[in-house]
Amino acid sequence: MEYDDDLKRIVAFHGHICPGVAYGYRVAREAIKQLGRKAKDEELVAIVENDSCAVDAIQVLTGCTFGKGNLIHRDYGKQVYTFYSRATGEGIRFSIDFDYPETPEEKAAWERFHAGEKTEEVMSRIRSRKARKIQAILSASPEEVMKIRHVTMPVPPEAQIYPGVRCAICGEKVMEPRARVKGGKIICIPCSEG
Ligand SMILES: [Zn+2]
Ligand SMILES: [Zn+2]
Question: pLDDT digit string (tens) for 137-155?
């Protein structure tokens, strides 16, 4: 299968193709299509409810990144991704709900794999199942891959920049809200726990 430029960029960043990347690609493409151009200067915020491979695809394509502060991780273990405009709070929520049409042979191989069997026969079936699953995710319609609904979010504050203070124990700088006071000294969290 030929990958488009978006998918090539994601694979270059993430390091491999996998079902997670394929889901993230589908979600990110749909988010961009429905919410307009990609996030510039924190216009778009993403809330991701897992820390799977899919999140890398979202960071590459939408410009919502951990470092920019417009990617928020909620550790719910759900394949749910919400994107909204920081200015208006208008957004879209994507919930992955894909029924991969597994063949009986694939199902059997998967069960043997989970029971601990790592024979070449099982491993090659697992690899081809994975390739077929990626293909299925990439070629399904958006409605087959995910549930999509419009949402309105409360508008969060802008990302803040804090002054740095120096830890009295290790001498390294730490942003002020993360500093601790112990015995009248300002110290960092690792030193306060150590
Ligand atoms: Zn991956
Ligand atoms: Zn310290």
Answer: 999 999 999 999 999 988 6
